[in-house]
Amino acid sequence: MRVPFTKMHGLGNDFVVLDGRAQALPVMSGALASAIADRHLGIGCDQLILLEPSDAADFRMRIFNADGGEVEACGNATRAVGLLHGASARVETLGGLLSIAPEGDGIAVDMGSPRFDWNAIPLAYPMDTLTMPVGWDELGDPAAVNVGNPHAIFFVDDADAVDLERLGPTIEHDPLFPERVNVNLATVTARDAIRLRVWERGAGLTRACGTGACATAVAAIRRGLTDRRVAVALPGGVLTIEWRETDGHIIMTGPAAISFHGSFETDDFGVHA
Question: Based on the domain organization, do 145 and 225 belong to the same domain?
Fold first, then answer.
């Protein structure tokens, strides 16, 4: 069975997208997803995206990180899928229903409402999620936000000065986070601007993380550090995040692009679904 794919990216956060809305796809296992994502032996990507029919929305999006784990949400991938779809739509994900729409030169995604309860993050035990009384080396007092997936946000003087490649996996796998966590280092540079680096759960350092930008903006707004519309600058580019007062929804707007098209056979990777 030859499987067509589209290689895409959102600000350098890259995806292999398999469209199963009109044709059958191979049964996806963690091992096969990881093999496809491998940058040396596979196609290479941060996340593998599967599009499938849905009874609850226009279509369903499944997301596999590079380690083969299936996760709830990916903001950059949602924008990429919006570009591929080419029209407004509602998308079913493990993290809930999302709305996508073309907006100028990019795609706007309604990410829904953030969650702050300790058991919604989730954390292993109750604590204040706005300023968590925990720390790892020089990083302390993070905020925690769930925007379809769990995020810990550390506000620091200089996000580039912290060894995120060393601390990221330690925090991601800490027992405090039973479903692991995405780790965000944020430096507020103005009332409407944040500089951000992200260690992504199951993928590592990434050039951009849409849900991380959303979670970080919300945490900054809750702490009174920024206004409700913020430009979040990541290594791959800038996302605009607005946390609306009217309905509490987060609107993420930014670009996405198609890199190339191709096809493969599952046997190409020596892994069977």
Answer: yes
Q: Would you call 209 a catalytic residue per the annotation?
A: yes
Q: Is the pTM value of this prediction over 0.85?
A: yes
Q: Number of C-alpha atoms within 13 angstroms, CB side, residue 55? A: 0
Residue from 65, 75, 77, 72 nearest 30 by CA: 65
Together in a domain, 74 and 186: no
- pLDDT per residue as tens digits for the range 204-240: 999 999 999 999 999 999 999 999 999 999 999 999 9
Whether residues 38 and 12 fall in one domain: yes
Of the residues 25, 209, 241, 251, only one is catalytic, namely 209
Considering the chain, what percentage of its residues have pLDDT values greater than 70?
A: 99
Looking at the DSSP bridge assignments, the partners of residue 140 are: 135
Residue in 50, 74, 183, 196 annotated catalytic: 74
Q: Which two tokens stand for residue 255?
A: 């670009």
- The confidence score (pLDDT) of residue 220 equals 98
Number of domains in the chain: 2
Q: In terms of residue numbers, what domain contains 6?
A: 2-111+256-269
